[in-house]
Amino acid sequence: MCKPVIFDTNIADKKTHSAKEKLKDKILNLLSNRERITAKDNGSISAAVLIPIFLKRGEEHLLFTKRTETVETHKGQVSFPGGVREKTDINLEVTALREACEEIGILREDIETMGALDDFLTGTGYCIYPLIGFIPYPYDFKISMEEVDEILEVPISVLLDKRNYIEDKNYIYKGKPYDYCAFKYGNHNIWGTTGRIVRNFLTIFYGWNFND
User: Is residue 149 within 8 Å of residue 128, measured between CB atoms?
Assistant: First the structure.
């Protein structure tokens, strides 16, 4: 008689948990060993985004949203959840978490915040505070139909593939030089300030350098 084989259904969950903890430790260590670049107050509008990171089938992903064509600005563009700081937000971390909840329905208590990347000034007069947060996956997202057309789950391996990246140091925006870069994901282009935030994220945590 064959001896029955008993599978441990928790093995995959244990591996995912271990991989998540290793990635969290890596991010926290790198953030703690570098000085965050903050922008001087030049009259820019304060805003914040959440950089949601999660593991899907053991692979590291970032979550983006594709904006609707009915929003006031950046219609149809791919971005991180985020928006302008409100008077009731005690700090920019609160702004990022509030906007993520409003746009994709993820609760604040379900987000493990890691810290922030460097501030980014936009060509449209905003100063962006990019907050990194681990989110659970799968998750019952509830998107705002007014703001979000769809959610994009992008493998970090795709973003690291330089065949999916372009940049133009001589790009002119509103008559001024602009550091243009874009990441390709399927039919989507992740560009503008979001593209620059992604590039900074990959450089800090994965040693990514397009010119290598």
Answer: no
Spatial separation of the C-alpha atoms in residues 40 and 166, rounded to whole Å: 29
How do residues 73-103 score in pLDDT, each as one tens digit?
777 899 999 999 999 999 999 999 999 999 9
pTM of the model: 0.90
Tell me, yes or no, whether 182 lies in a domain: no
Phi, psi of 191, rounded to the nearest 5 degrees: -135, -170
Q: What distance in Å separates the CA atoms of residue 45 and residue 32, rounded to the nearest whole number?
A: 27
Count: domains in the chain: 1
* Rounded-to-integer distance, Cα 190 and Cα 198, Å: 9
List phi, psi (to 5°) of 41. Answer: -70, 105
Residue 68, domain extent: 16-33+44-159
Structure tokens at 150: 């769809």
Residue 153, in any domain of the structure: yes
**Does residue 29 fall inside a structural domain?**
yes
